[in-house]
Amino acid sequence: MQYQGQTRILVAVDCIIFGFDGEEIKLLLIQRGFEPRVRDWSLMGGFLKPDENLDEAASRILYELTGLKEVYLEQLMSFGQLDRDPVERTVCVTYFSLINIHKYEKQITDSFHADWFSINNIPRLIFDHVKMVNEAKIKLRYKAALHPILFELLPEKFTIPQLQNLYQQVYDTEFDNRNFSRKLLSTGLLMKLGEKDKSSSKKGAFYYQLDKEKYKQNFQAFLNLIPNPDKFLL
User: Fold this and answer.
1) Which of 41, 82, 120, 129 has the most CB atoms less than 10 A away?
2) How many Cβ atoms from other residues are within 10 Å of residue 36's Cβ?
3) At residue 3, does pLDDT exceed 90?
4) Taking a C-beta distance cutoff of 8 angstroms, is the pair 45, 15 a contact?
5) What proportion of the chain, given as a percentage, has pLDDT over 90?
6) How far is residue 138's CA from residue 232's CA, in Å, rounded to a whole number?
């Protein structure tokens, strides 16, 4: 049995992968392998198959185009503008993720020339992919305010300057060093370690770890680090 008189429409899935290399937030892109816009930069995208659900499609597409696997992907939103794909009417469901670049860099294949670009210097993208990236950035800021996802981008042990730099990248703003450090330590959610990172200065900076148990009980403590939190939590 089929629904009579209904038009079949393609369903695509695009993956928006943000990464942090210790210094800046980056976006993973590939070169499109077919017309139209062949060899232009694109998000990782493909079409839903009849025998898979959306989550399965996202994981498959990401692996086929980049080699990345076992990456946590979260559904973002759908895009269904009438003219978003010049070839055929296509509705696209987007997924996004945030990863530690160094953790996954050995998995990335060169089949489609996957490469990382600074979030502040993205090349021209195909179709409505810029709009997708912008929506993902908004969601990233929202989630970073309420969940410890930024800690997934850091090593198991990290310094306060490293964490501050990451927050500055996500929210595209500068923090006062002393004020950020004071607010951060006042949360009581970090455990100070006895060793230092001396790679950038002789004095060095102490390493810290997130106290995950305390975080579960008081995750909102990090909200005072966010500039204008109401703007991101509406």
Assistant:
1) 129
2) 11
3) no
4) yes
5) 56
6) 8
The predicted model scores a pTM of 0.85
What residue numbers bound the domain in which 25 lies? 10-146
Tokens representing 130 are 């810029």
Same domain, 15 and 131: yes
Examine the domain organization and report whether 173 and 199 are in the same domain: yes
CB 96 within 8 A of CB 18: yes
What is the mean pLDDT of the segment spanning 209-213? 84
Q: Count CB atoms within 10 A of the CB of residue 25.
A: 24
Contacts of 6 (CB under 8 A, 6+ apart): none
Q: Is residue 46 domain-shared with residue 132, that is, in the same domain?
A: yes
Residues 119, 169: contact at Cβ < 8 Å?
A: yes
Domain count, the chain: 2
